[in-house]
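User: I'm new to structure prediction. If I give you an amino acid sequence, what do you actually give back? Let's try with this one:
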Amino acid sequence: MASARASLALALCAAPSAALMYDVVERAMTAPAECARGCAPWSSLASAFNTAPQAAVDALWASRDAQAAAGSSCAMPANFAGAPGGAPGAAFDFSFGPQCYCAGAPGAPTAASGYCGDPAEPTPQQVNVAFGADAGDLAVAFVTVDGGAPLAGPPVVEVCGPALGAACVNASGATARAAEPQAAARVLSYHNVPLPRLAPGARYTYRVRGGTARGAWRGPFELRPRPAAGAPARFALAGDLGVYPYNCFANLLKEDIVGFVHLGDHACTF
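Assistant: Good question. You get back a string of structure tokens that encode the predicted 3D arrangement of the chain. For your 270 residues, that looks like this:
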């Protein structure tokens, strides 16, 4: 009998996912301090007079389409995200955040690269949806880096979908703030916005904004609440979601899941 119970328990456990990271692009982030002329295009460093080896940079990307679409934006390509040793021409790794290669100039080429800076406008990061104590309770949480600028209002989530009876509705929440221990002037705002009750099984889109006057919207993202009664439900389970080549973010994107159980060490910041 004990053996049968053990077999049943094993059958209920999902097989572990293979490592599969995706290319992360952060368009709102600003060029590194080292890049006085901005960032070079990831697909054509030489066109911006950066001499880092193009073939080695190409190999960092899981998708050449994503590389081309990234343009000159700050990014963490999938095949190198968090790998030790630094990217070609760089003395750091992506576990410290997005980077780019610097643009040079005629007669003044460069191989330099650097870490990107915070967005010029407070732009939401770490956007996620969480279940509450009741299966029908949902809340959106996100972070902005706003330097402690005065709040002009609460954080807002705009939810859109046919099941609402209106095109879109806004929900507002609360903000808590904390200074980064390593850089006290870098103030992080943590936002939590409870959502209205949404129809089970329906699909929605949403976008988010912090409460400062210059805060930028981010989205749209897709949202699906709990399944309709009697419908099958698939959940994923993982831990330590840093931006590393051996994490499973891309597996989560391609699976049809309704919930995600996080075991801890939520180290992903983008």
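You can read the tokens as a compact description of the fold. Here is one thing that stands out. The two ends are 47 Å apart (CA to CA).
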